[in-house]
Amino acid sequence: MSAKPSTTDEFIEMTATQAVGLLKSGEATPLDFVDAAIARIEEVEPDINALPIRFFEEARAAAKAFPSQAHAGADRPGWLAGLPVVVKDYNDVGGQLTTYGSPIFAENRVEASDYTVETLEESGGIPMAKSNVPEIAGANTFNPVFGATRNPWDQRMTVGGSSGGSAAALAVGEAWLATGNDLGGSLRIPASYCGIVGLRPSVGRVPRGAGLPAFDPLWVEGPMARNVADTALMLDSLAHGHGCDPLSHPAPSVPFVEAVKAPKAPKRVAYTPDLNLSLVDPEVAETCRAGAMAFSAVGAGVDEACPDFSGGLEAFQTLRAILVASVRGDLLETDRDRVAPEIIWNIEKGQNITADEVLQAERARAAIFHKVAAFFETYDILACPTVAVPPYPVEQRFPTHIGDTELTTYIDWMFLTFVITLTGCPAISVPCGTTRTGLPVGLQLIGKPKGDFDLLSAAQLLETEMGLADQMPIRPRKS
């Protein structure tokens, strides 16, 4: 698209890459895109509830003031040129609310943007709204402050979480790019459930805020978009070192967008339906197997194979509990009656972890990493379903069964993403089909350690082969 769009729908249907092209050329202005996004948000929000915190006038003012010519940051990789973006409500935007979906923080207005958002702003992004999240943490986006976000594909269903508001906003065209973060799958699960792309980058690829333990490798910040090319663009906008995040490192010498301009096929792809760990819904496994086999059309060999993830379920549960307790443990003393029961359980689990359990978890994590690294000496990509179950009813707090098997904790159904978190490897969820009832299914692709570039290249080839990116954005569907 080379000419300036003439209608709101034409603006909304553009990819982020196309939009930035128009902004850079001066054929459209940041205000054009802000106003188009506002019109779409006002149209669909009553049905979806993805963006409960909106600061339209501030975004309009920033768009009007955005330099039309040379800008100090215009040479940054991933320059967004004034494109409006959505920020998850676990991240701070200066002057705006950060509620974490909790009544405890319902009036928490922050002074400054966190390092992730600061980097995005320095790359020419204009925050205009914040997306809905689960209370404190979780994988179903509902909370007592703003209520539930509904899946645009079927409003009776969940969008997953915790980046559920971001994923839904992208799916219905309220935004072109959105931030997310990922501990156990929060960039990948909602991407799968909403039919968009979510990338968990390598540890340290994107700077994080000061509210997290500085040396924690489990929680990462990352991009969400409607297609792989836009995801690469946003990763370039975020991937810059920050002196206050000791794990962050400088932008790569070759921008990530180059990975999708001339993608290279992986030589060997491994597919596993379940990481040899637990149960997966048969329809999900069938759809994802077909998606993985699409790599054979671009010349890749596809085998059914998997590294040994033994001990990963227990290790992640232990390490996650320690992280949650370290970040939010004080709430049990000050506001216990206002904390969700799942979070109370997780905090107390972390507070009661023994030294032996910590040692066992660290040994398991180290063993898994080395086994995965050795596996990638043979294979270029590991593919598996993103989520073990398709989207479930939004009123259900979390899945309690897979088939006839009862689950024991509220994160058991997320094992396909949270075990990958332990490796530190980059992982991306790409749409690969739908269930028989029309709900999206995502295929999770895992790359080699620090292999974000090659992972994006493989994801681009799969997306092209599957031909599903053109379905975005959609209008909300009742059922």
pLDDT below 50 for ≥5 consecutive residues: which ranges?
A: none
Distance between the termini: 32 Å
Q: Would you count the extended β strands for me?
A: 15
Q: What is the gyration radius calculated from CA atoms?
A: 21 Å
Helical residue percent band? 25-40%
The number of distinct helices, counting runs of at least 4 residues, comes to: 16
How much strand?
A: 5-15%
**Structural class, judged by helices and strands?**
alpha+beta
Overall average residue pLDDT: 96
Shape: globular
Spatial sequence of strands, sheet with the most strands: 6-8-7-14-15-11-9-10
Can you summarize the main beta sheet?
8 strands, mixed
Quick description:
The protein has 16 helices and 15 strands. The chain has helices at residues 8-13, 16-25, 30-48, 56-65, 115-122, 164-171, 189-194, 228-238, 257-261, 282-293, 312-328, 331-334, 341-351, 355-375, 415-421, 452-466, and strands at residues 53-54, 83-88, 125-131, 142-143, 147-148, 177-182, 197-200, 220-225, 268-271, 301-304, 381-385, 401-402, 405-406, 427-434, 440-446. The two termini are 32 Å apart.
Protein described:
With 479 residues, the chain is an alpha+beta fold. It is 35% helix and 14% strand. It has 16 helices and 15 strands. The chain has helices spanning 8-13, 16-25, 30-48, 56-65, 115-122, 164-171, 189-194, 228-238, 257-261, 282-293, 312-328, 331-334, 341-351, 355-375, 415-421, 452-466; strands spanning 53-54, 83-88, 125-131, 142-143, 147-148, 177-182, 197-200, 220-225, 268-271, 301-304, 381-385, 401-402, 405-406, 427-434, 440-446. The strands form four sheets. It has an eight-stranded mixed β-sheet with strand order 6-8-7-14-15-11-9-10, with helices on both faces. Strand 9, helix 10 and strand 10 (301-304) form a beta-alpha-beta unit. Helix 3 packs antiparallel against helix 4. The radius of gyration is 21 Å and the shape is globular. The mean pLDDT is 96.
